[in-house]
Structures are given as structure tokens and as C-alpha cells.
Amino acid sequence: MSSRENPSGICKNIPNLISSFVDTFVDYSVSGIFLPQDPSPQNEILQTRFDKPERLVAIGDLHGDLDKSREAFNIAGLIDSSDRWSSGSTMVVQVGDVLDKGGEELKILYFLEKLKREAERAGGKVLTMNGNHEIMNIEGDFRHVTKKGLEEFQVWADWYCLGNKMKTLCSGLDKPKDPYEGIPMSFPRVRADCFDGIRARIAALRPEGPIAKRFLTKNQTVAVVGDSVFVHGGLLAEHIEYGLERINEEVRGWINGLKGGRYAPVYCRGGNSLVWLRKFSEEMAHKCDCAALEHALSTIPGVKRMIMGHTIQDAGINGVCNDKAIRIDVGMSKGCSDGLPEVLEIRRDSGVRILTSNPLYKENPYSHLAPDSKTGLGLLTNKRAMDPPSQANGESATIPDENEEEAYLLLDKVIPAVHLKESAGDRSCCIYRIPHTLERVNDKVYAPKIVSIGPYHHSSDKQHLKMIEEHKKRYLEIFVSKTKDNGVNLCHLVDVVSGLEQKIRDSYSENLEFSRQKLIKVMILDGCFILMLFLVVSQKIEYTNFKDPIFKLRWILPTLRSDLLLLENQVPLFLLEALLETSKLAPSTSLNMLAFKFFDYSIKKPEGLWKKHNNLRAKHLLDLIRKTFKPVPHPPTIPRQCCINIFSGHRENSRTETSKNTCLGKISCSKEITGAQTSSPPPPPPRPFLGLIVSARKLRLRGIKFKRKENVETPLDISFKSGFLEVPLLVFDDFISNLLINCVAFEQFNMSCSTEITSYVTFMGCLINTEEDATFLIEKGILENYFGTGEQVSLFFKNIGKDISFSISKSFLSNVFEGVNEYTSQGYHVQWAGFKYTHFNTPWTFLSSCAALMLLLLTIFQAFFAAYAYFRPPKNKDNGLKLLRESAGSESCCIVRIPQSLARINLKAYEPKIVSIGPYHHGKEHLKMTQQHKRRFLKFFVAKMEEKGIDPQELVKAVSSLEGVIRGSYSEDLGLDSEKLVEMMVLDGCFILTLFFVVSGKVVYTNLDDPIFRMPWILPSIRADLLLLENQVPYVLLQTLFETSKLVTCSGLNDIAFEFFDYSLQRPETFWAKHYGLEAKHLLDLIRKTFVPIPSQRSIKDHNYLTILCCSEEKRRKSSSKSSFNDHEFLGFVLSAKKLHLRGIKFKPRKNTDSILDIRYSDGVLHIPTVVMDDFTASVFLNCVAFEQLYADSSNHITSYVAFMACLINEESDAAFLTERRILENYFGTEDEVSRFYKRIGKDIALDLEKSYLAKVFEGVNEYTSKGFHVHCAEFIHTHFDSPWTFASSFAALLLLMFAALQVFFAAYSYFRPPKGK
After folding, report:
1. Given the DSSP bridges, would you call strands 325-327 and 305-308 parallel, antiparallel or unpaired?
2. pLDDT tens digits for 1025-1050?
3. Distance between CA atoms of 20 and 11, rounded to whole angstroms?
4. Are residues 627 and 616 in contact, defined by beta-carbon separation less than 8 angstroms?
5. 846 by DSSP, 3-state: which?
6. Which residues does the annotation mark as catalytic?
7. Residue-by-residue DSSP string for 798-816
8. How far apart (Å, rounded) are the C-alpha atoms in residues 1214 and 1235?
9. Which residue among 523, 667, 817, 1187 has the highest number of C-beta atoms inside a 10 angstrom radius?
């Protein structure tokens, strides 16, 4: 056999040479570099401590930018023009973060490895270190990877696999390991074109991966060089105590795949770890923890300073804490800030200095950054430092791009969505994102049309917002040219904004993913653009560009005014004030007056009124204009309590507030909490008439007179007196509608501001409920409508009132609400107004009424004269006569998916708004806002357990033991492994229990700025979400966590759960006490059982005979015919309320009962407890009915009740009738919406009337109405004596009949028996 036919025979003698050749071939193909031979021995122990060299150079983060890396080595004189080592015995330390944010990561790794080998031969040293981005990539966290970075690793993988195939030809070599072993082919939520790059990156960088093992195992995690200690993030005393050498070896072992699994050692993870710490990297020196730094350095003998990277220093390399902490990350990579490269040099003879590529500074003595100073090399960069990251080949240098999908993710690592930060409840925070619950009403009114202001809509993918961006730059040039006349240039403006940076960030409710330079640029561009508009419109500066499209085109300025008053489109007002003051362009005019002059074109007010508001203090432009609408003088507000108010949502609007609606639990304002009981303040006096009012036309029918109020300063100045409601004119157009809706959103978020606009909008929303109401107010001169049709106006006020929290008792219009309700509750006013409206509303009804009255009078006169003629006949006159899973039906399965037949009625009623509980809705985009708060609550929960000496791991053990019970509680296969299921249950369960503990005051909670408890719209939404059938966890899980934690021992779980939901259900404490012993499957079942009358709380399991609920006449007859087979002649569905009323049934509200389900019938009278119908109640009904339908072992009390009410409320008039009888309190919408709700909820549900707890009520009502006498008598009374006016008409007709009969009698009598003498 020839050698060509047996290539393995050729290789057998030279395997190592072939392997070396293949490796060199692959290296050059990937990097373009021939690596010299490595002089270091294999498996050398990683050195931690080094002697101080003659010259030491420190280089910061490189982040995938090879050109900037070379430039950094060049300015330190370390390499020659051919990139070869040229600095002899110099020692270099690169502090980590070579990976991520760029596309040349592998090339830099090869470049550094080449210099390491060359420096070693020349007597020098190059140390490379692990940064947080190296740790993240080894763990598989690729959230900062760029597209080019994926492509680079994909190229490496192709060459590496080719090299392995070449090695397999040689029989003398071991078979190479497949680098892709165990890596999936695809990844969820990742674009398919990124799969190959992600797989290659995992293969290269995971523990024991070829690139990780070859390059990153040589990295130190911490190094001591002479009197300096190097680390990427920072060192604490606890790290040093653990052992620096031990840390280096353990991290190296983890990268080699020897121990630790996928995740790094604990000291490399978390905010206080070696690679993530920022305690010594704060930009302002006074914020750095110098005491911790001193303590850490004192534990390392001979060390004077700590040198670190990790945190970008916009001011350039600098030091704090008396130069004991030196920060060298200048963000030089194009993927970061594109800063100018700088390096730190430490010489044994001449000390420390900074070497920079800035042409203004070739060599600069090193100096620390003073606490109140921001000077430094970084502020003297050239123009590109203020530009966006450069573009290469038409692609952004970093990922993710806003118009792409969610970037490139790996396994369970997800790019975090923008969340509400924990400090969003601070007083300084005033600019918010609109939440999902408000935005869904009309997302367009919150988004700018042509200009973006501030960070929320900056760099948007919407092309229509880019039109004005070029004009912003043009206006900035004009602004700066004007300020130069006053000795002010752009640098002065930059300094001013730089000093306000942290204050600006604090003003936004989200963590801004903007670098310092980018934020300053956005604020200067937007702030100067706004000021230029103000100055030009108010003619404070000379502006001669008469062709400027912003002022030339008529549509632009009005649109700009509207965009400048959007909540998401704001910058802080203090920024505008600082820029205006610095510019000196309008020294005699305040910013307020400039703004008022600008907005006066859309909000017409006399100049004198604007001047009254000259001294207003506001958060931003929207807040400034909002405050000009407040009535002057403003009525005194209720003193703000030192604890947080928890509002009860919709129910608070409908009832007198009780002492329960007070504070977050019972948190005291004092620093010490004693065991002594303090006396509670006396409850406020009852206000029985405080509540929402009915619509304008209904108020008119009840005697309220509407009058336009003249000579007022604001449309909010509404008053009521002696039946007259005086309302100022509202000019309603697109601008005002946008202003109102954004002001309401701002007032919902900011707890420190008053709620006048919310109160006004709620009041007008009550008045304008239908198109006819809008037309009526237009006729009265109260409303000028330029918005659209009357129906569009009414829809606007309906929509704006949804999902907002509003307290009537704290409203400045509370007296108006109360006065109107009190006036209309008096029967005389209502009856008299109804009479006038019925008979004298129009000229035609007036004429008809007059004609009827005249006919009655003439008839009376006729009868009178006929009788008079009999007794005193005229002489000589003739008195003649005139003519789901298989086990889904088991008792343990209690949390089920809503079937399509029920979900199609109202899908949104079964889906959570802001929080997901359990597996069914986990991971949905609009629910991610609360996920971060769940983890924060878990930390709080665990901390409280540790304070009591309880191991938090007990929670995991307890939940793990319940895994089978938990899985059996759900109707579907969850598709989760044990670890993820236990994690989800612990996280959700502890979140719920923390809410219960804090609201009930059982656990002390001192974070008074927590947005969960501070923002009034969040808790009511969470309460509703916790009572959705698909959003449940088993109650046994909550009970187990409750007992394991031992945080509350004085109360049971039912007790604190009832106290949490009481803010929306509003029940007396004695009621809840009766249900402390209830057993339930989950929270929805627990609350459902509290509705069930106590004698009836038992399960009904026999469901053999089913009747499909339908109140139509045809199916009612079928129901009656079926029930006849069971000897229940009258058992069937009842008629509607109005029809029952016509057949003699009397309706009375039932009092002194604990349950709204406790309906009684006796002797023609239906006693029905009053039900308060609002969004919360509707949601509970829908989900309780679904639970009773889908859980076989549940009773059907709620279903029976809903079926009965659905029969009664069949039409809009039925709802109005029950409202008049005080059986229904409607805060759900119009009467038509209530009737449609009950119609929809009754479709496709099964109900056995014979086994219903209301069977006797159904039967009794039907039996009573089947008797003819009752029906005819009731119809007669209703027709003729239902109201005073029908009674009067019937009485008049009876009189007329009697007089006519008398007339006939006397006429006949006089004929047959004429008076004597005739």
C-alpha cells in the first residue's frame, strides 16, 4: 500500500509537529498574528504579588476596540510601529474588560498574548486581568455582545473545527473534543440568524472552552505590584481576609472547568464583588466610601493605593480619597463613550502621571478630583467625544438597537426591560413613563407628534420625530452665538448641566441608560431648543430668519406646544432655569413669563392672570401649566401624614371613607416602636351624601339648574348653591384634551402634588356621560366643543376616568359633590322638577298641558252649569236630553385556564394588569415591571427571617416538599423543571405575603418611598390581579411559607389576607372575624367563600342535571317544562325587574346582612342586599363564576346569584329601576353597560336550579306572578298611581267621569220628571 493511500502512516511519526502547525494555521487565520513561542512553563502557578518595577503602566477597559488598544500602548511607548514590544523591562497591567461592546475581541486577546510573550523575553511583563465582562461571558451572559462580536467568534469556530478535522487525520493524536458538545441548536427569543454566533461564543468561552482555557486562565483577578493593588471593580477587607492568592487560583480553576459549574465564585458575583464594586468609583469624590478603602488597604502590607477600571470616568483618569483610589477606565472603546485613550504611568523615581492622546495635553501631572469639582482631562476632549458612537459599515457599534428584536440573549439571560426604579416614589422624581393600565386607553395622547424632549423618546425608531432634531442643533448654534455677547460660551453651559447631572437623573422614574456625555448633550440640545422657542415668540431676542419653517408653517408651533406638555416628553424645570440664568439673554424676565407667553397662543388668558402665577414653583412645563389651572385662593388641603396612604381604588369613589383608609399598616413615624397601644384619633364625621353624581341631564330632571359662571380665572372654579350649579366655560379642543389627560397621569404618579385636575376631570366625566349630556352643556354655554362630536366628548371623559385612583373626600370639589347629592335626595325637588320637565319642557309640551288643563276646567264648568240648570233652570227654556389534563377534574386541581367559551366574553377580565402570579402569565412583556420588585421583596422577606434566626433555605425545602401538590393544583402540564417551579413559587408566594404583612402592619417596613405603596394606582391594580383565576398559587403554598417564616405569630394567614383586601371590599371587622377559620384552595376561593352566607358554606358535588342559563322567553319556557318532570311546577328563571314590578312584586333593599347573596322572598316582596357594582366587583364575579364552573367540588353560590341578577337586569331600564330602589349602586358605567355585563356573564354557563341556594326564591316569585289577581291589580296601580302626576291624571279622569255621569243623570231626570211649573 502506498503512502498516499495511507496518510495516517505519514503522520504517525510527527504528530506533535502536525498539531503545532495546525494550531498556528488556525491562529493566523483568525487573528492575522504569528504567536512566538511561549517562554512560560505550562500549568505555572498564577502569581499574585510582584516587586515594584522601574516603570509600571496601567491600562483601563478595552471592550473590543483593537485600534484604541494599540493607541493606548503607543502613547505609553510600549510598542513600535510593527506592534512589537519595545519597552524592555516595563511592566503593564491591563485591568480587564477586553470582551463585549466591540467586534475585535479575539484579535485583542491574541494581540495581548503576543505582547506577553515578547515582553517576557525582553525582561518585561504584561499582566491581564479578569473584569466583570469576562466573568459574564464565561457564565453565558451575552447581553452586551455586538453583532460583529458574534460573527468574529463564528469565524473562529469554523477555523477551529477545520483544524480539529485536520488533526483527526493523524493517528498519533488524541481525538479532539467536539467544542459544541451539549450546546443547543437554537435559543428562545433569539433571532435565528444569531444562533450560530451564540453557539460559537458559548463553545469558546464556557468553562474549559478553548479560548477561555487558553487565554483567560492566565488572567489574574487581583494583583499586588509594589505599593499598588490592581483589581477590576474594587477590593473590600472581606476579600483580602479570604485570601488574594486563593481568589486567583479558585477563579482560574473555575475557568478551567475544574469546579464551580456554570457560575463564578460568589466573590465575583453581585454588587460588592471584586469585579462589580463601585464604592470607590463614584464620579463625585464625597460619595466614595473612603473609610472602607482605608480599611482594605491597611490589611495589605506596603500597599498605598488601589487602581481599578469598570466605571467610566468622563473626566479622564483621576483619583479620590487622597489619591488612594485611582480610576483608569476612560471609556475609550467606540462601543462605550469613544473617549480619548489615556494610561497611568508610575515610575519608581518620579511618581505618578497621566499619558494621554489628547493633543492639548502631552504630559499631565496626576491630581485627584475634588469633591465639588468636575474638572479633568475628560472634559477637554475633541468634538467626537460628544458625538454618538461611530458607525461602521452602516451598522451601530453596539447592540441592542431599538428597532431590532431583543438583541442577542442566551438561555435564561434576558435583556432587562426598562423598569420603574425603586426611588420612583421620591419627591425629586417627577417625570414618569405612562403605565400599561393608563396607556391602553389611548396611547397616542402620551406620545409626541413631531419633537422628542428628554430621554424617553430620544433616538426613537419613529422617523417622524427626527424632523426636528436638525433644527435643535441649528437653534443651539444660534443660542450660543447670542450668549457669546454676554461672555458665555458652550463650555459654561456644559459646566452648568454637568453640575445638575445627578439631580436630572433623579427626576426620571427609570434608570437612564445614557452615559454622562450623552445625557449632557441631550439636556443642552433640548433645553436650548425650548428656550429659543420661548425667547423668539416673546421677542426677547432679535431673530431675522423669516423663512424658518418652525415659525413659517402654521401647523408646527401648535403641535410643538402640545408636545411640550406631554408627561413623557419633559425635562426638569430647574434645568431650563439654570440655562436661562447662565445665558443672560432675558435678565429682566422670568422663565415662567416666557413660558406663559409661548403657551398663551393655545391657552387664552389675560396677561394679568399670567402675572399672578409669575412666582409659581413647578417640576417641569406640564406641572407649571397645570398649576395655573388651580383655583385661587386654593382651599386648605388635608395635612399630609407621615405614613403612606393606601387608596382603595374605585370603591373609595363610591362610599364614605372610613378609618380603614388611612395608612400603610400601622407604621409609626417615630424611630422606636413600643409595645404600648396608642389611642387612635376619632373617626371623621359621616358624610352620607359624599359620592359621585349622575349625569347633567339626570341632574336637570332632579331639579338642578345649570348656569355658566362668569369672571373666573380657571375653568376649575365650580360652585353649587341652592340648586344652582355654576360651571365656568370649558373650551374643549385637541390641545386641552391632551393637557388634561397628561395632567391626570402626572397627578396619579406624583404623591406630593395636589389632584385638582383629576377632581375636575372626574366631575366633568360624571356630567358628560352621553352625547345628550354634551349637547345639553353646549346649549347652556358651559362647553364649547372643537374636539369632535358630542359622542366623542363623552367617550373621552369615560376613557380618561378608567384605572385612575381618586379620593372624593380629599377633592377640592368634595363640597360640590356632597351638595348636589344632598339636594337631589330631597323628594320635593325631584318630583317638582320631573313635573316641570314632563309638562313644560318645550313649547309643545307646554301647549299640550295647557290644553288638557283647559279641557278639565271646561268639563267641570259644564258639569256645574248642568247641575245648576237642574236646580235653577232658566225660565221658558226647554230642558232637552243631550248625548382540559385528564386529572383536571380531580379535587386537587383548582387553578385552571379559562376556556374559550368564557374568555371570549371579556378576555381582559381574566388577564392580570401589572403582576403575574403563578406560571400561566409568567414572562409577559407588560407584566415585567413588577418582577424586579418581587426580588426586592424576597430580599426583605429573607432579611426579616434572618433577624429571627431562621435559615431562609427552609423556605426552599418547604416548597420543594410541596412540588407534587403544586403541580396537581394546575390543570395543565407546566413544562417547568423542579428548580424553576420552586423558584417561581417562593418568589411569588413571598411577594404576596410581604404585601399582606406590610399593609396589615404586622412587619415594620421603613421604605416610605417604595413606589408599590406610594403610587395610588398600583395597589388597587395588584388587589384585582390577585383575584384572577389564572393568576393564583395554591393556598397551601402560602400557608406553608407563612408558617415556615414565623414572621407573624399573632394572626393567621386568613386574618392578614382579609385586611389586605378590605381596602377594596370595605367590610366591618366583625364580618371578617366570622371567616378566620375558612379553608380555601387559593386566594380567589378564599374571598369567594366570604360572599357565601355562613349557614350555606358547604360544597355541592352533585351536578347531574344542568340547565343552560338564558333569560329569553323561549328558553324560559323550556326550563319550566323540564322542571315539571321534577314536580317543581314554578321552578324556572324569573322575569326582569320591571316586568316583575308590573306583576306585583315589590323590591326592597335588605339590610343587616353579611352577604350580598342573602336574598329573601316572602309574600310578594323581594329583599335583596345592596350590591356596589364597580370594576373590582365585576372582576371578582367573573372569576368566581369561572371557578365554580370549572372546579367540580365547588358550590355554585356566586353562579346562582349572578344568574338571578342577570334575570332581573335584562335591560337598561331594569338597572335604572334597581338603582332607584337602592338595590344597585352603579359605579361600573352606564345602566346599559351594567345590563350588558350581566347578559354576557350569563352566557355558556351551567346551573342546576333545583340545587341552587336560591331555588325557593325562583319558585316563590314565579308562583306569585302566575296568579292573575296580583298581576292585574299591580298593572292597574302602576298605570294609574305610580307617580304623583299619573295619580293626579287618574283622579282628574275619575272626577271627569263622575261629573259626566252626574250630568247625564240630571239631564235624564229633568226630562222624565221636569220641575213643577213647567
Report:
1. parallel
2. 999 999 999 999 999 999 998 888 88
3. 13
4. yes
5. helix
6. 133
7. HHHTTT----STTSTTHHH
8. 8
9. 523
